[in-house]
Design goal:
The complex is a heterotrimer of chains A (about 425), B (about 525) and C (about 400). With about 425 residues, chain A is an alpha/beta fold. Helix content of chain A is about 30%, strand content about 20%. Chain B contains 15 helices and 22 strands. Classes of the chains: A alpha/beta (about 425), B alpha+beta (about 525), C alpha/beta (about 400).
Chain lengths: ~425, ~525, ~400
């Protein structure tokens, strides 16, 4: 057999936060990296913040570091229990990487910040984009919607924000305005489309001119999170300067423009470090005569990449890294790694309520890993060249805890480092 | 004696009740309909959408079959906007006993139901997803019907003749004076009150026994529950029936953008609640997949169970499917409640006939001689849009021009801001879920994740004091409960996406008042 | 509905979870008011299509496939759109312009016979304005020059390697045959240097221009003929090698996924089809050949064409170019240059294609590129038109580094 050369030291499957963090961590160590995914991950649905730990039971977590300590003590099977030391360097890596694309991430592990959303609710976040946070105390908030953009209704926001803030002891006022932009009448409007428009001076000028008469006594202007993609920081600064008051962006329905910014900034940082990215690749891990291969379902015949190390960062049931099968099993899709099944009968994997207290029982399912992020089956390492990170990992109630991003960064960081070592 | 408020009170806002209301009103009877929830809250809102040709009953129950085909023709005439003329096909598979097909042809011919045999290849050209094991295909004039539009059209027609409607009003007592009906006690949003009437029509479907009991009368109802599975896409052009004696999972009905696979049959006394088990859903899908094999892998969106309002004086709980689908009109005069009738059993296809017979009885009691006119007089057209045919909405949206899609509140079902606004302005007190019933908002793949907050936004924009977030959460909960038994694969992914949006992006679970 | 195919492509719409990721990837949606986006035209409209709706918006999809690749649910959005576009045309008839653009082989044959005259017409402003008025091809749109004498005629004179390790059949496509015969000669030369013998099977236009212009029936005839003509080479154990990533993708995927031709023969041909760099990269990874030791001291922006991305094979040309010494290579990271085959030639779409292509112009500027490498002919013409920089097939650059003159 001719000598085979592996073109990459580390291949990462998954282009979400965990995958890109893993790819970056490996690239930082000089590894030749390929990151690929069957499509984009949940960054495009989430808020573009880094949520480490937002809720503990019914409580809102004020200090994630302290919250984590308690969580790890109470639930040693939680993925964070393996990753506490990993968080700080992981967040630093992510923060430095996004900063290269002028995307700053503010905040630290010692405090969560309450950020308003498009519905007028408040949510805690650990790191956030500078466009998202402002001091809400005593504010007179003007929420401005854009006629034709259906994913932000300022009246709904204004009707709900005061009560949401009051629940956290914050007093404020809010009112709604609607900006009618005649050039948009024929547009098929969505967030990314508006974001591109906000990057153009003529659009901003007209927007500001139309909004200004409504400003009144407002001390804060709240807009849907559509203020630019590549140049958001610049757009935001211009709006604040020209309006003379702070401006915040409110996360809304997918697609998430702030989430796209985060994803694109990380992808760009990876390319700068020589990493390669492939979108639209469905992959399967195979071992053939001792040789590890990643088989991509390419057009007509599979594209096979000889592997050294593989990081699975394919996500949980929403991303398709895990599949909740109709037969009543949860399985892992790329490498067939054993999955810790949800407790109880499939009948009860989902609770009676959508937004009830606690997590859906199914969300605790996933794969178990050792300290080096290698998947375990029956307590044994499944394959020495395989690593896992992110939504795949068992034991977390991400949606209820608001912990998805922190787990993704920390486990991605650990898996990328271990795979590159 | 003072003149009572109404000549007749109809209890139950299903298709039958609204049909009775219309019939009475058109004969000049001053009448009121009271409904505990919203129109089509019960059986009418939870059936499979089939306007029977009668072929399903032809072999076993020729009388019901004849009624069906006669009413099928009338309903197409009077309510063209509520009907999609899909046609239906009976499919005999290779493993099925062939003689049933011949019996069916004969029985249909006897019952005056058009039935045409079609070569299996041709049948699969029209419906390419039909099983390759198709041995014989028989075409019949089945169609589908939108019960919400039908009920609303009946109400509008009745209101045009002076009738009244009260939703969210539950009848809690029947006032009987000297053996005659004198009024009803109701409890509604404005509290408890007494409404005087000379006659009462109990059209409460599965609740008919409960309502009759208020007057001390006895109506032995045996709700027969059936599970229906809503598939994400339309898998056939026509209504697909299995060509054999009716059984579980033997029909797939194309309704708008979706196909509904059904059904099962269990008798349970509780008309309110039925717990749908995963195994039952999988069994329906497996059985339906014999007709349309792709159904075994296709994506279900949600499931629901409907209670057939079966009248069963014999109380034989084991024979739900075998019980008659014919209707029965009970006059409670013999039980000391003169002026009260109950209309029970039957099926949606024959609602008009049931209404006619009921109204005849009431009119006799009231001394009204005007004959029934509902078979000839068309119903008023719907307010929402042009007639509901698949594909129409896409065409309509394009005709409205560039950017019109930005006006869509529900992208899956192509429902516009204008339509939602009109619905809510009439029924905003009912909350999002009920207020939008019949609009198909939130009935597509995402199960309201994207349209519900937009609709909530419209509510808040009109009136900031509406508890819009609470209504949004209720709507999402209701959709979740419907999807819960089918949360696997893609629909599980959908629900996890929805969970990310509402818990992680919006923290809606922590919002005050939710 | 009877005209619709019920195969894996049609069924893929079932998987949409409405997440909007396809819209975030679409380059056309933000460039025009006339396209409501892949989500609307793809899985969303699909649920309503059994009712045979009227829909024209879908004609503004350029078919670049960015949506399909970005979709985390595996929905074949672009393929659904291509089919919907064909049924739009079936209903309203196919304009003369589309019929012409769809027939690149016929045009090429006519043009190369009459090259001096035809080129004069293409270069004269008057001629182009006339073409815009009469048939709707934008007068500024980038069109190539016909070559005098086709590649197939020149091929006979090309030498073979002494001891080849494999023999392949070359599918050159219309552009190489009639406009850029030197590219075909270069491909043969590069393959020879790397020990690959090349035969030239009889062949026709792959049919992609017909697919993009809505003529599925004609495209199917081309497809069937090509499958018949290429099958003997495949059965003799030869792989089909392409230098046009769009022809290659058509043979590999579109016959089945768009035209619905799902015969064993079609699968055989598809499975044997390789992009030239896909073949060479595999040989390199398997240790059969060595990366050329050569230097290319140039600043190269590599733009992987949208059609190549749909192959799902990564960027084999960049893997190869990256091994050259002295090269300053960056990937564009841009989904599409805008031209999307014949899309950007059309009067009503030229401006949209230009706006889409601006991202490539920006990237070329950021990288201070002196050449833009790209594996698809129409993209190269568009990039050259928009950036003013030379745009070359990667194999031309490899040959340049290896000292082979064109």
């Amino acid at each position: 057999m001719p000598p085979v050369s592996e073109p990459y030291d580390v291949v990462v499957v998954g282009l979400g936060l965990a995958g890109l963090t893993a790819a970056l961590a490996a690239a930082e160590r000089g590894a030749r990296v390929l990151a690929l995914g069957k499509g984009y991950g949940t960054t495009h649905f989430r808020s573009g913040t880094i949520d480490v730990l937002g809720h503990a039971g019914a409580e809102v977590v004020g200090n994630p570091r302290a919250g984590l300590a308690q969580l790890c003590q109470e639930r040693p099977e939680h993925p964070y229990a393996l990753l506490r030391e990993e968080l700080e360097p992981a967040l630093t890596l992510v923060r430095d990487a996004t900063a290269e694309s002028s995307l700053e991430l503010l905040g630290d592990l010692d405090a969560n910040r309450l950020l308003p959303t498009a519905l007028g609710t408040l949510r805690p976040a650990c790191l956030h984009q500078p466009t998202m946070g402002a001091d809400l105390r005593g504010a007179s908030v003007l929420a401005a919607g854009i006629e034709g953009y259906r994913d932000f209704e300022p009246a709904l926001f204004a009707a709900n924000l005061p009560a949401a803030a009051a629940a956290h002891g914050i007093e404020l006022r809010a009112r709604a305005a609607r900006v009618e932009m005649p050039p948009l009448r024929r547009h098929h409007l969505d967030g990314p489309g508006l974001a591109q428009l906000f990057e153009q001076a003529w659009f901003r000028d007209q927007f500001l001119e139309t909004l200004r008469p409504d400003l009144g006594d407002a001390t804060l202007v709240a807009l849907p999170a559509v203020l630019g993609l590549r140049h958001a920081a610049e757009v935001h600064a211009i709006l604040e300067r020209r309006l003379g008051v702070p401006v915040i962006e409110l996360p809304a329905l997918p697609p998430s423009v702030p989430g796209m910014r985060l994803q694109r900034a990380l992808e760009s940082a990876l390319r700068v470090r020589g990493g390669r990215v492939q979108v639209g690749a469905r992959a399967r891990f195979v071992r053939e005569g001792g040789r590890a291969l990643l088989e991509i379902a390419a057009a007509a015949h599979p594209f096979r990449i000889p592997l050294r190390r593989l990081v699975l960062a394919t996500g949980g049931p929403v991303s398709g890294g895990l599949v909740v099968e109709r037969s009543g099993r949860v399985s892992e899709t790329v490498a067939g790694v054993p999955v810790e099944q949800p407790a109880g009968e499939p009948e009860h994997w989902y609770g009676n309520d959508f937004l009830g207290a606690g997590a859906q029982p199914v969300s605790l399912a996933g794969i178990r890993v050792d300290a080096a992020m290698r998947p375990l089956g029956g307590g044994e390492v499944v394959d020495p060249d395989l690593f896992a990170a992110g939504g795949l990992l068992a034991g977390a109630c991400r949606s209820a805890e608001l912990s998805a991003d922190g787990i993704a960064c920390a486990s991605g960081h650990a898996a990328g480092r271990e795979a590159a070592s | 004696m003072n003149r009572p408020d109404f000549d007749a009170v109809v209890i139950g806002g299903g298709v039958t009740g609204t049909g009775v209301l219309r019939d009475l009103a058109m004969r000049g009877v001053r009448c009121l309909l009271v409904e505990q929830g919203d129109l089509c809250h019960g059986t009418s809102g939870r059936f499979h959408g089939l306007l029977h040709s009668g072929a399903r009953y032809a072999v076993r129950d020729p009388v019901a079959a004849r009624e069906c085909i006669a009413e099928n023709r009338i309903v197409r005439q009077i309510a063209p906007d509520c009907v999609e003329d899909t046609g239906g096909v009976f499919c005999l598979l290779e493993e099925d006993p062939e003689e049933y097909a011949d019996r069916l042809i004969e029985a249909c011919e006897d019952a005056d139901i058009e039935i045409d045999e079609q070569a299996p290849d041709r049948a699969r050209e029209v419906d390419p997803l039909l099983s390759p094991r198709l041995a014989r295909a028989l075409e019949v004039p089945d169609a589908t019907i939108n019960p919400f539009e039908l009920a609303m059209a009946n109400v509008r027609s009745a209101e045009n003749c002076g009738a009244r409607l009260r939703r969210r009003t539950r009848v809690v007592g029947v006032v009987v004076e000297r053996g005659r009906v004198a009024g009803v006690e109701v409890e509604g949003p404005e509290g408890r009150e007494r409404i005087g009437t000379r006659a009462i029509v109990n059209a409460a479907g599965p609740w008919a026994g409960v309502v009759a009991g208020l007057a001390g009368a006895d109506v032995a109802m045996s709700p027969g529950w059936g599970v229906m599975v809503v598939m994400n896409e339309r898998l056939s052009r026509r209504v697909v029936n299995r060509c054999r004696m009716p059984g579980d999972g033997d029909i797939v009905v194309p309704v708008g953008t979706v196909s509904i696979a059904g059904t099962t049959s269990h008798v349970l006394p509780d008309p309110e609640h039925y717990e749908i088990r995963r195994a039952e859903v999988l069994a329906v899908m497996r059985a339906s997949a014999e007709l349309i094999p792709t159904l075994a892998e296709a994506r279900p969106l949600r499931v629901y169970a409907g209670a057939r309002p079966l009248y069963d004086p014999g109380h034989d709980a084991s024979r739900s499917r075998g019980m008659t689908r014919g209707h029965t009109l009970l006059d409670h005069a013999g039980e000391g409640v003169e002026g009260m009738v109950s209309i029970v059993g039957g099926k949606l296809t024959t609602y008009r006939l049931m209404a006619e017979e009921t109204a005849d009885a009431v009119c006799r009691r009231l001394g009204v001689r005007t004959p029934c006119a509902t078979a000839a007089e068309p119903l008023p057209p719907p307010r929402a849009a042009r007639r509901w045919q698949l594909g129409e909405r896409l065409t309509l949206n394009e005709e409205r021009g560039a950017g019109a899609d930005s006006d869509l509140v529900c992208e899956c079902e192509l429902i516009t801001r204008g339509e939602v606004g009109r619905f809510l302005s009439e029924r905003r007190d009912n909350g999002l879920e009920d207020g939008l019933r019949g609009l198909r908002l939130g009935m597509g793949p995402c199960q309201a994740a994207f349209c519900a907050p937009r609709a909530a936004g419209l509510l808040a924009a009109e009136d900031p004091d509406t508890p819009a977030l609470a209504q949004l959460a209720d709507f999402l909960e209701e959709r979740f409960r419907g999807a819960r038994p089918v949360l696997w694969e893609d629909q599980a992914r959908q629900m996890h996406l929805n969970e990310i949006v509402y818990r992680e992006v919006f923290s809606l679970d922590r919002a005050p008042g939710v | 509905m009877s005209e619709m195919l019920f195969d894996e492509v049609a069924r893929s719409a079932d998987r949409c979870i409405k997440c909007n990721v396809c819209n975030t990837a679409c380059p056309v949606m933000p460039a025009t008011d006339l396209f409501p986006g892949p989500k609307y035209c793809g899985p969303q409209a699909q649920r309503h299509r059994p009712g045979d709706p009227i829909e024209e918006w879908v004609d503004y999809c350029s078919g670049c496939g960015a949506c399909t690749r970005a979709c985390p649910s595996g929905v074949k959005v672009a393929e659904l759109n291509a089919r919907a576009r064909a049924s739009v045309y079936r209903r309203r008839g196919i304009p003369l312009r589309n019929r012409l653009l769809g027939r690149s082989e016929l045009l090429g044959r006519l043009g190369s016979v009459t090259a001096p005259v035809a080129n004069l017409g293409l270069e004269s402003g008057l001629g182009r304005r006339l073409a815009e008025r009469l048939i709707g091809i934008h007068h500024l749109a980038p069109v190539p020059r016909f070559s005098q004498g086709s590649f197939r005629r020149r091929f006979r004179r090309l030498p073979r390697p002494a001891r080849p390790w494999t023999e392949v059949a070359y599918f050159h496509g219309c552009a190489t045959n009639y406009y850029e015969p030197w590219l075909g000669e270069g491909a043969v030369a590069l393959l020879r240097r790397l020990g690959v013998a090349v035969e030239l099977p009889p062949q026709h236009c792959c049919g992609l221009p017909l697919i993009s212009n809505g003529e599925f029936d004609a495209a199917r005839r081309y497809a069937q003929r090509n499958i018949r003509l290429l099958l003997p080479a495949v059965r003799a154990g030869r792989r089909i090698v392409t230098t046009s990533t769009s022809c290659g993708y058509t043979l590999k995927a579109e016959y089945r996924e768009v035209l619905g031709i799902d015969t064993p023969e079609a699968r055989e041909v598809a499975a044997a089809t390789y992009d030239i760099f896909e073949l060479l990269r595999e040989a390199m990874w398997e240790g059969r050949i060595e990366a050329p030791r050569a230097a290319l001291p140039r600043r190269v922006l590599y733009h992987p064409p949208c059609q190549l991305r749909s192959h799902g094979i990564g960027v084999p040309a960049a893997d190869f170019l990256g091994s050259l010494e002295g090269i300053e290579l960056e990937e564009s990271g841009v989904e599409c240059c805008g031209i999307a085959g014949t899309y950007g030639l059309k009067r009503e779409k030229y401006a949209i294609a230009r706006r889409v292509g601006e991202a490539v112009v920006d990237r070329a500027g950021e990288h201070r590129a002196d050449v833009v490498a790209c594996d698809s002919e129409t993209c190269r013409w568009q990039i050259q038109h928009l950036t003013g920089l030379p745009s070359r097939h990667p194999l031309e650059l490899v040959l340049e580094a290896m000292g082979e003159e064109r």
